[in-house]
Amino acid sequence: MSSIFVTVFIITTIATVLALLLTLANYYIADYGERKIVINNDKELYVEGGTTLLSSLISNEIFIPSACGGKGNCGYCKCKVEEGGGPILATELSYLSEDDKNCNIRLSCQVKVKENMKIEIPEELFNVKQYNVVVEFARDVTPTIKYLRLAICEDKEIQFRAGQYIQLLAPPYADSNEDVFRAYSIASQSTTNKYIELLIGYVPDGIVTTYVHKHLTKGDKVTFNGPYGDFYLSDSDCDIVLVAVGTGMAPIRSILLDIKDKKISRNVIFFFGARTEDDLFMIDEMKRLEEELPQFTFVPTLSRPDKNSWNGEVGRVTDMIDKYLEYKEGREAYLCGNGPMIKSTVNHLIDKGFSEDNIYYDSFD
Amino acid sequence: MSDINPLVILMASIFTNNMILSNFLGMCSFIAVSNEIKTSIGLGQAVTFVLGATSIINYIIYKYLLVPYNLEYLRYIVFIITIAAFVQLVEMVVERYAPTLYYSLGIFLPLITVNCAILGVSLFMIIRSYSLIQSFFFGIGSGLGWTLAIVAMAGIKQKIKNSPIPKGLQGPGITLIITGLMALAFIGFSGIVKI
Ligand code: FES
């Protein structure tokens, strides 16, 4: 019996002494003191050294996109570090292009603030804020897509441009034990500042989508930050081609509602692809827009329709591009969907005379 | 207790009983980090430091805590705890005072914890019943031997960088072959002393 006590005692003593030693070391060696971060040669922040740049900025209410929550595997949190970032880390390499490296672009979630730093971030990011919101409704518009409206609680308002996205936070819940952010495009028009709408597709085992689909109901409180992104309508007056599949509808809807609100008179055609009739949604609204906006054409298309009930277009969105568009230069296209769809659509558009510089896209993956 | 001169142990553990080339301990970081001489020297220093320090600490703990209470059987867990704590300490120090080295070592610094050469030294010194001084020299010697091997390997790798190596052998494949050849060469030293 006593040998058990002795063993436990000795092991505990050794562990305690070592833990003490490490705690002291952490206190004295890993203490980097206060450090200064100068942003865009203008704003100064004083932060506790030793943490990552991303978290220092977030704690000062400057939100940089970070879909993976700082784990270094989304590559969104890029920013320009002019001074004090140290050498590029192995964990950053796969997300930085040659251009990025030459321009001192770094992943802010990997860079630690150890010295005074000088960084540059896009001015728009100062507009990014964190919002506490209440779910006003959460409806299924297809078996796999939820349509949410999130009303901002405090007396804050959100300013964004149609086409931008936000990052929704899923707090820890049954299947996840950490805070996880994911990016979703805003589906509502930019003139409403008190709420935003989202279209969220279900991804099996997706942490945030499972949270939204299985746990979120009307009246729940959630948090998001935003707006982010540079996918929005240009100021030109050339014709517009919109292409979306599935939840890619979100930013396109926002852009369309804006076109209506701001009375923009440009020719617009919108190709919306889905598999079956069940996967189509917001069709009535699009039809209504078509009636209200004389220069707008809406073309829904199904790749696997039920031949008996569907009498609209059949095929993929790329087939519609071939069918509806003439060869012509000087048009703009805005695409939103998965990577492969974007890739093939871009090729088809180029065949129709689009210049690559006038094709803008927002890819989900 | 063995009565070999500590200096002999030091020399022997560098050359004749080299941790990598005659015991094949600590191979993973040896293979992965040996791309640049500078980084290898850095990692070698860190390993040597950890070895020197943990051999003393583990010796003291073993001799004055475990043996008197008949707890020798706990040595694996105790040694590993000490090594882990020590590596963490070294990591903090390197991160603070040698950031460039810290960045070039990346993930391999914490991996020293599971570098079997380090646990190997602590266990060998017990098996061979070394004294404190002997253990310390053994630790330092093994560290230097490890450094020697990894730096030599880094040098060779740099030399063969542009050589036409068959595709299937590139990377770890050729590294293992070279390690084998180096080990053969080092066998030439063996038998000079016995430790
Ligand atoms: S936050 Fe995802 S890579 Fe930095």
What descriptive keywords fit this protein?
heterodimer, A: 365 residues, alpha/beta, Elongation Factor Tu (Ef-tu), domain 3, Rossmann fold, 3 domains, six-stranded parallel beta sheet, 9 helices, 29% strand, B: mainly alpha, globular, binds FE2/S2 (inorganic) cluster
What do you see in this structure?
The complex is a heterodimer of chains A (365) and B (195). Chain A is an alpha/beta fold and 365 residues long. In chain A, 26% of the residues lie in helices and 29% in strands. In chain A, strand 1 (34-39) and strand 2 (43-48) form a beta hairpin. In chain A, helix 8 packs parallel to helix 9. With 195 residues, chain B is an all-alpha fold. Chain B is 70% helix and 0% strand. Chain B is built from 9 helices and no strands. In chain B, helix 3 (37-66) packs parallel to helix 7 (116-127) and helix 3 (37-66) packs antiparallel against helix 8 (132-159). Chain B is globular, with a radius of gyration of 17 Å. Classes of the chains: A alpha/beta (365), B mainly alpha (195). The interface between A and B is medium-sized, with 23 and 24 residues. The structure holds FE2/S2 (inorganic) cluster. The site of FE2/S2 (inorganic) cluster (FES) has 12 residues of chain A, from loops. FE2/S2 (inorganic) cluster is lined by residues 66-68, 70, 72-77, 107, 109 of chain A. Chain A: Keywords: FAD, Flavoprotein, Iron, Membrane, Transmembrane, Transmembrane helix, Transport, Ubiquinone.
**Euclidean distance between termini CA atoms of chain A:** 60 Å
The low-pLDDT segments of chain A are none
- Portion of residues in beta strands of chain B equals under 5%
Give the averaged pLDDT of chain A, no decimals.
Answer: 91
Task: Give the biggest sheet of chain A.
Answer: 6 strands, antiparallel
Distance between the termini of chain B: 12 Å
In CATH, what is the homologous superfamily of the largest domain in chain A?
Answer: Nucleotide-binding domain of ferredoxin-NADP reductase (FNR) module
Unreliable residue stretches of chain B: none
Rg of chain A, Cα atoms, Å:
25 Å
- How is the main sheet of chain B built? none
Number of strands of chain A: 17
* CATH class categorisation of the largest domain in chain A: Alpha Beta
Total separate domains of chain B: 1
Identify the strand order in the major beta sheet of chain A: 9-8-11-6-7-10
Q: Mind telling me which CATH architecture of the largest domain in chain A this is?
A: 3-Layer(aba) Sandwich
Q: The CATH topology of the largest domain in chain A is what?
A: Rossmann fold
User: What's the tally of helices of chain B?
Assistant: 9
Subunit structure (chain B): The complex is composed of six subunits: RnfA, RnfB, RnfC, RnfD, RnfE and RnfG.
Keywords (chain B): Cell membrane, Electron transport, Membrane, Translocase, Transmembrane, Transmembrane helix, Transport, Ubiquinone
EC number (chain B): 7.-.-.-
Membrane topology (chain B): Multi-pass membrane protein
